[in-house]
Amino acid sequence: MKKPGLSLKNVLVSRPIVLSICAVLMASALSACGSKDPAKDASAQPQATTAATGTAQSKPAEEKKTVAVTQVTNWFAEPEHGGQYAALMKGYYKDAGFDMTIMPGGPQVSAAQIVASGKAQFGMIQGDDLIIARQQGIPLVAIAAAFQKNPQGLIYHKGQPIKDFADLNGRKVYVASAAGYWEFIKKKYKLDTVQDMKYTGQLVNFISDPTAVTQGYITAEPYALKQQGYDTEMLLNADSGYNPYANVMFTTEKMIKEHPDQVKAFVEASIKGWDYYKDHSDEVNPKIKESNPDMTLDAMKYGAEKQKELVYGGDAATNGVGTMTKERWSTLIKQLTEIGVLKNEEDVSKVFTTEFLPKK
Fold first, then answer.
1. Which domains, and CATH codes, for the chain?
2. CB 357: neighbour CB atoms within 10 A?
3. What is the per-residue pLDDT for 37?
4. pLDDT tens sequence across 112-148
5. What DSSP string describes 203-265?
6. Comparing C-alpha atoms, which of 152, 149, 147, 151 is closest to residue 322?
7. What are the start-end ranges of the H helices in the chain?
8. pLDDT at position 203, please?
9. By three-state DSSP, how is residue 166 classified?
């Protein structure tokens, strides 16, 4: 499977961005990590032994003992994980006491299940998917949100008379089955003549029909389409009023109860990484590419620039990267309940916590 934004020669496979896919993954058996390579902090490995004596080489007295920790992201390595890779590259995780491994996600990887099973201590997920996981009995807790504004949206060919979501009526829209945001948008904008088309991960149908619309990420698909000569514009789902936090860092209730110091250290190191990535993405992107060689540095540069306002704007501009509010989470829970994705409203006090975020 290729990362969205890599190629349009035959099939462009996008990351799953829908609630139904999350449910399928959670119901399946645990999967190994994606086809890309995990990233480790090479400076935080166990001490080596000498070839001659077989005895352990001594470490500097001031070096702290590190704890082996794994985090699993929500897709193959990309700029949307820039802060995590910056923290690894700059040694922030090591300074926090971790021998950190970043396990890339992918289309057959459920970060929720991997973390819930204890195979990883931390993960990354969409805000709505985390709520659904809790409704399914998986006790996940959001501890920071990398994206204040969700990068998901609906892409259309430039020049089409589309200014708002209401203008989608009568058009073919390629969206994965039972997408929560799409159910919300259809209901809010009364899209009674829109044609729901099954999204398969391919863009060929969208390309061949100038009037069609397709799901995608502002950080990826528009770049790939432009590289192939197709100019597009986009409606961000967040502008419809459906704006779940994206790339939410999470752990389990058990981890918070038993190792709150590690949770705090992880959040602080990750946020420090995101603060660094803001102005040093060109330095960090080659590190990301080591785990995802298929993605070009130009594509990463595009993604890093497009996501700046989504990560560092909004509430983050005042309260810092990672910040979350009860109001945002409560609104999302209510929306998911109203469109029938949730049978019962989740207790928002158990869904997220800001206690581990750096104080401003």
1. 19-41+65-150+245-351 (3.40.190.10), 152-240 (3.40.190.10)
2. 20
3. 81
4. 999 999 999 999 999 999 999 999 999 999 999 999 9
5. -HHHHH-TT-EEEEETTTHHHHHHHTT--EEEEEGGGGT----EEEEEEEHHHHHH-HHHHHH
6. 147
7. 19-27, 82-89, 92-95, 111-117, 127-135, 180-188, 204-208, 221-227, 253-258, 260-291, 297-306, 308-312, 316-319, 326-338, 348-351
8. 93
9. helix
Rounded CA separation 18/132 (Å):
11
Alpha carbons 208 and 201: distance in angstroms, whole number: 15
Joined together, the tokens standing for residue 23 give 């449910």
Longest Cα–Cα distance in the chain: 77
CA nearest neighbour of 39 among 269, 285, 220, 264: 285
CA–CA distance, 35 with 348 (Å, rounded to integer): 35
pTM of structure: 0.86
Nearest to 72 by CA among 107, 106, 97, 98: 106
DSSP state of 38: P
Q: Which residues of the chain have pLDDT under 50?
A: 1-13, 16-35, 46-56, 59, 61
Residue with tokens 């918070």, as numbered in its chain: 256
* Residue type (1 letter), 156: Y
Least Cα distance to 109 among 144, 151, 76 occurs for 76
Q: Which residue has the tokens 């021998």?
A: 99
Segment holding 101, helix H or strand E? strand 98-103
* Whole-number average pLDDT of the chain: 88
Tell me if 14 sits within 8 A of 219, measured CB to CB: no
Tell me the two tokens of residue 341.
Answer: 């994705």
